[in-house]
Write a structure and sequence with these properties.
Blueprint: E1 3-4, H1 17-28, E2 42-45, H2 50-61, E3 72-77, E4 87-89, E5 93-94, E6 101-102, H3 105-111, E7 118-120, H4 129-132, H5 135-141, E8 146-151, H6 156-172, E9 176-181, E10 186-187, H7 200-219, H8 223-233, H9 239-251, E11 257-264, H10 265-268, E12 274-282
Helix pairs in contact: 1-2, 6-9, 7-8, 8-9
Length: 283
């Protein structure tokens, strides 16, 4: 099996197994504000460097149902514009500091002919943090699961792929979970978004006005609304990934979504530029 090497290990998150496990255990010692009433079949998580949003992502992924043990974890992500082709990896594996995750080739091959995918390989891929930063968490909590990484744009094809993945999973008798990776509002001069000014007051307005609206759409499991809101207000960077995860989770019988945690990079490092993060569990 050919293995794709990680790009961000050792910079955005720890580069060796011991440090990864130590950091994960530290994340788990911090309790999220809310838990879903039952174990989740899907989550939406942020993808900044672990010092900023790793705890929110780790604790959300830890809420995915451990039993029966999932055969496959589908991870939706990638920074793609609305008109971009979706992206899929169909063979091989992706390495993590905790060991490799093998691709669920059968599930990938069931999806690939249905959509105009660009195919990534272990040797040919676009470096992208949105999926990679979740993989040590996936490997830690589900060491024997396979992986299906899928990049989706913020367009109707995201929901179509989410539905198609759920249908293939049911047809093939696979026990699966889903992760959607997106950060929220990117605010400040670095992102060309300063309509609330700068400083503490701007941070509070972004939290209450911008991030809260997209979180409300996610909590309502309104996949189309997530994309519509993100494209109009620029308050999520990978709305397609969130929409695909919501759609797939709903098709796998998730009925409710719970905000597990919310924070921003401003909480860790106050400044004129900051990014919002949320964990959502769907069960």
């Amino acid at each position: 099996m050919k293995i794709r090497r990680p790009v961000f290990a050792g910079s955005w998150y720890p580069g060796n197994a011991n440090d990864c496990v130590r950091q994960i255990n530290q994340f788990l010692e911090q309790t999220p504000a809310q838990f879903p009433e039952k174990a989740a079949c899907g989550v939406i998580v942020p993808h900044a460097g672990w010092p900023f949003s790793g705890g929110i992502a780790c604790r959300a992924i830890s809420l995915l149902a451990p039993e029966p043990a999932p055969d496959t974890i589908v991870v939706f992500g990638m920074h793609l514009p609305p008109g971009a082709a979706p992206v899929i990896m169909t063979d091989g594996g992706i390495d993590t500091p905790l060991g490799p995750l093998g691709i669920d080739t059968e599930l990938a091959q069931a999806l690939e002919p249905q959509f105009p995918f660009e195919i990534e390989t272990p040797d040919g891929f676009s470096p992208d943090n949105t999926i990679e930063l979740q993989l040590p968490f996936v490997k830690h909590f589900f060491p024997h699961s396979r992986l299906l990484p899928v990049g989706v744009p913020p367009a109707s094809v995201a929901m179509e792929i989410g539905n198609a993945a759920a249908e293939a999973i049911k047809t093939m008798g696979i026990n699966a979970r889903v992760v959607g990776s997106t950060d929220l509002t990117h605010y400040g001069p670095s992102f060309g978004l300063t309509h609330y000014g700068l400083g503490d007051a701007a941070h509070e307005k972004v939290r209450k006005n911008e991030d809260s609206r997209i979180i409300d759409r996610m909590a309502a499991m309104d996949a189309e609304g997530v994309i519509r809101e993100a494209l109009s207000a620029h308050n999520a960077c990978c709305a397609g990934a969130a929409a695909a995860a919501i759609t797939m989770a709903g098709a796998l019988d998730a009925q409710n979504a719970t905000l597990t945690e919310y924070g921003t990079s401003y909480d860790k490092n106050p400044g004129d530029t900051f990014v919002g993060y949320a964990g959502i569990a769907m069960a």
